[in-house]
Amino acid sequence: MNETLRKTLTTLTLPTLLASALPATAADVVTSIKPLQLITAALTEGVTEPVQLLPDDGTPHHYALKPSDMRRLTEADVVIWVGPGLEQFLQKPLSRTDAEIVTLLLDSEPHEHGEHAAVVEEEEHHDEHEHEHEHEHEHEHDEHDERDAEDTAAHDHGAGSDPHIWLDPLHTLELAEQILPVLQKQFPQHQDQLLSNYEAFAASVRNKEAEIAAQLAPFSERGFFVFHDAYGGFVEHFGLKQLGYFTVDPARKPGARHLAEIRERLEASEAVCVFSEPQFTSAVVDAIVGDLPVRQGELDPMARGIEPGKDGYIHYLQTLADAFQRCLEKKDQEI
Fold this sequence. Notes:
Strand order of the largest sheet: 2-1-3-4
Strand content: 5-15%
Number of helices: 12
Oligomer: single chain
Distance between the termini: 86 Å
Largest sheet: 4 strands, parallel
CATH superfamily of the largest domain: Nitrogenase molybdenum iron protein domain
CATH class of the largest domain: Alpha Beta
Radius of gyration: 23 Å
Mean pLDDT: 80
Low-confidence stretches: 8-26, 110-160
Shape: globular
């Protein structure tokens, strides 16, 4: 092959080779939090890989977007979030993107005590300082004010506005049904694959739901407290005996009167277990439990560390079930 012919073929084929190396689709699917990424990843298996906006150690209760987060939103084709009742910090940023927005909890409203996290465009440390100042101000509230805020938020949750909507497995199937049409619209060439993925996901969730129901049935009368009011969907679905929670908003310090009541109930042996969370310090839980013969466990509402994929959400459900079983069954072994 002469040199001229070789250069001509290289010029013609190089763009083709580069194009073939690109993904089949350039559509960018972004989910606000890990649990939604797990659900979406099961639906998009073999089609695309959804991106999680918040880091695993982040919490939607108080988060400030970085410039890189804002770029990700503006470049996205689809953004999936729960709604302002959970990710209030996303309300304004989502108005700046042309992406297809999937709001899973349409009637959710921000809690009155929620933080208004801002997009950090220049002064991230300034925002952090303001956040710390707000916490100091909150801690100055008297016991009565703390309890009133807690009661108000608890009433909101009781009215059916709990935004942790992924913790009831059968409700999760409804979320998947909401997400599926948007994905099919975004990936028209993969409609059959997406539908097949949904059907496989639905079957897996139903099977896992039945397994967990059998696994946790022996512990339905074991009382426990959780760190914050996030697990209603899971607890109610599987008939567990949650006696209460330390706080509604994990960014807010629990009231002294409320903690004293929990201590009294622990002393009365109403609970066999108290759960903390990996995202927040368990110091307040340790202080209240003290030397009482109460087990301590850990629950993670945000699924940190769970790898996305077709079985990611199923694995997450099992980790929750196992965490409940480990803490609740210990009492049986000690009696």
